[in-house]
Amino acid sequence: MTTSEIVLVGVLALLGAGLYGLLITRNLIKVVIALQILVKGGLLALVAAGEASGQTNLGQSLAMTVIVADTVVAVVGLALAIQARRLLGTLDLKALSNLRG
Amino acid sequence: MNDLTAFTWMILLPLLAAPVIYLSGRLTKEQAGVARWVALLALVLTWIPFALAASDLSADGPQTYTLGQVALRLDDLGLLLAALSLGLGTLVVLYSGPYMAAESGQEKYYATLVANIGVVIGLGCATDLFNLWVWFEALAVSTYLLVAFYHEQPTSLEAGIKYLVQSAVGSALVLLGIALVLGQTGTLNLVEIREAAGADSAILLAAGALFTIGFGVKVALVPMHTWLPDAHSQAPSGISAMLSGVVIEAGLIALLRALSALARVEASWGELLMAFGAINMLVGNLMALRQTQVKRLLAYSSLSHIGYMLLGLGIALYSKELAGAQGSLFHMLNHGLMKGLAFLAAGGLLYALHTSMGDHSPLTIGDLAGAAQRYPLAALGLSIAVLGLGGLPPLAGFMSKWQIFVAGFETREGWIEALVVFAALNSVLSLGYYAPLVNAVYRQKPSEAVQKGQPMPALMNVPVVLLAVAVVAVGVWPALLRWLTGPAGEALLAAFGF
Fold it and tell me: What secondary structure does DSSP assign to B214-244, as a single string?
């Protein structure tokens, strides 16, 4: 296996793990973790793409920006999780599915 | 002020104002409402660079500002989005004064709202894919906070979490698409990608699919729409107006910009948009028909209006028909006016009947019965808005739908004509849920809620009246907005290289 193939497998594994996590978990904290894993797949893909197109610096600086943006999303997600726990006493998404139709 | 800085100030001013608004609200008494006046002042000041940028644009063409490797470029499409965002945003801040007066944490509300407006303007000026993603992500974060503003209400929290999770998955997919494009073409600049992209590259086609799904979550393309009715109905009413009138449209512009880079990859983006348009119209209308809550009904009607816009854009991309793009962008502005009016008027009634008494239950169609007797302005505003949305002449919605339909017939292709007829039937179907609202407001005996309701603050009527006048005026003189929609349609086709 060449390096780029290993990276590709890594990207797909991270994306798969993230999506699978989102599908099976009902715990809000785990949902945020699954989202993080998903974005890490995209991150690795960006670095690899920068490498492949001969612009290593570009790929890495994009990745740094993504980390910042992604952290902000995680912070907001966790803040919502804390608030859900405070209001409802649980992190289970089932308690948070009353809006329908 | 030299010509380079006019439009950058239009982006910077709201973004710089956001922390000032927060601090001004934090350091003074909440009741004084300092934050809202600072927010209003910041937005009023932003109109100055907007006017300068608009005159520069019409005199010298698109303006570019480069900072290091990142370039921002204001073209007519960006100007249209800026006008929509700033216009509706200013009215929403004015409206939120009385609406939010009793809430705690107003400084956060105004700071986020003003930042949101700046971010939408910036998103319209992005010239490279990654920059577009960063603005898109900033837009998403600011709207998560606004949707979940009533954080003591479990339903708002639920709407916020649904929105966050779906939107975050969408942006991760966009990121993957960007990586594919970068790996394949070696550049992120939208125009350079368009030049470099080969005709039958499967990887770039996959990137296009990822962009459609990723940005499509924000545009609420069916079936990625499930967050929208929750978020739009649970947010404070001013924010519902912004989400429906500006934020989903900003997502649409982002999707178009991303697809414009891939214009040469596959010639069927137009068909794709038309197909999503048809599904959106039908699902939006059918779901709206069975709603009993007014804001939820309006949220579903946004889905169908996105459908009309997609139809016009699809026609434009398919046949290179300028009228389709212009009609669609015209509908985008009109939808902002009409849906803004509808949410603000319905929000006013919600405030008077429920929220002002500390009751966070939703406004139902039953509550609206006889509202015209006690709240004549809000009732008239709501009626004008929904009849306009339904496409009754001589209101704004009729003119833009008409332009899209005419563009469809001008292609002289049977299946597009059938699609236009389908859209027209959908438009008639939509009256099935708009007309009962008007009927309830004017022809029924006052409901219990109306009889017990509080008076509506006078300041809340100002944006409602202004928007109602605008909806009628644009309907009677559609040329009023041509200075924005005409060049913006050309800019859109130019971005696709037609």
Answer: HHHHHHT-TTS-THHHHHHHHS-HHHHHHII
- Domain-located, residue A72: yes
Q: What is chain A's mean pLDDT, rounded?
A: 91
CA atoms of B167 and B161, how far apart (whole Å)? 10
Q: How many separate domains does chain A show?
A: 1
Find all residues with CB under 8 Å of A2, minimum gap 6, and list them: none
CATH number for A21: 1.10.287.3510
Domain of A27? 3-96
Contacts of A78 in chain B (CB under 8 A): none
SS3 content of chain B, % helix, strand, coil (to 5): 80, 5, 15
Question: B351 near B357, Cβ under 8 Å?
Answer: no
The first and second tokens of residue A39, run together, are: 């974005």
**pLDDT of the residue at B358:** 82
- In B4-63, the residues whose Cβ lies within 8 Å of chain A are none
Residue A101 is assigned to a structural domain of this protein? no
Distances (CA, A) of B52 to B8, B238, B445: 11, 28, 51
Residue A50 domain-assigned?
Answer: yes
At A101 the pLDDT is 66
Diameter of chain B measured on Cα atoms = 66
Which residues, given as ranges, of chain B have pLDDT below 70?
Answer: 1-4, 267
* Model confidence pLDDT, tens digit, residues A51-86: 988 888 999 999 999 999 999 999 999 999 999 999
Domain definitions of chain B by residue range: 267-498
Q: Which of residues 146-205 of B touch A (CB under 8 A)?
A: 148, 151-152, 154-155, 157-162, 164-165, 168-169, 171-173, 175-176, 178-180, 182-188
* A79 within a domain of the structure (yes/no): yes
Average pLDDT, chain B: 92
